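Consider this pair:
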Amino acid sequence: MSEQPLLEKSSKGSQFYAGLVFFVTLIILLVIGVIELVAWLEDEQQAPVQNIVVSGNRTFIDDAEVEALIKRTQSGSFFELNVDETHKTVESMPWVYRASVRKRWPSGLEVFVVEQIPSAIWNDDMLLNKNGDVFNAQINGLAKLKQLRLPSLFGPGGSEQTALQGYRNMQSLLDSTNLHIVEMFLSERFAWNIQLSNGIRLNLGRIEFIDRLQRFVDLYPLISKQDKQVDYVDLRYDTGLAVGWKTAENQM
């Protein structure tokens, strides 16, 4: 038997095993590389969120609070950060009405916010937005909020939109008199009482309160000419009204 075929067979076997070893080594190196890359990408120190940009018209939203909240709740790396969770977190802030969040390569985050538009103070400790939805925000000590001179509305739970719409309808009637509603009370039985910027209190009752307020607007020029100061006006009549005058005691 010739030795040539045996040598060729042995050479081919060696090449096969060498190739197999090379292939396995390459696979191992690739796996190690992928593991190292994933670990690097998830390492906050290697790829942190370095720049958070907050945009949108903002009066009450504090950009630093938004940034601190995101970093506190999403402490991972840029690649690990969950955009959906961050979006929910930002929208949970009291003054944020809507928000959108997106990553900006290589280490930034863009946050666009739509701010709540306060329309009234509700039950002395909450706020109503322009849609009549309640939101819980810090209302004490906010100079910017005081500058808006929001009306104070009071009413039972669930009547927020009814109260706000009633306020708007009544204020539109009062605009011609240069009077403004500073407080409005809606009772459990949906009876309306308002206090005006000049101190006059109006009792409008439950029904036809817009028509009754119109009656007051029509008669206000006559009432305001009286020598005595008006304390309250009761409009719970089919026609006419009853006026309560301030005494020397309650004028002080």
User: Anything to note?
Assistant: The helical segments are 3-42, 63-73, 83-91, 143-147, 160-174, 209-224. Residues 1-42 form one domain.
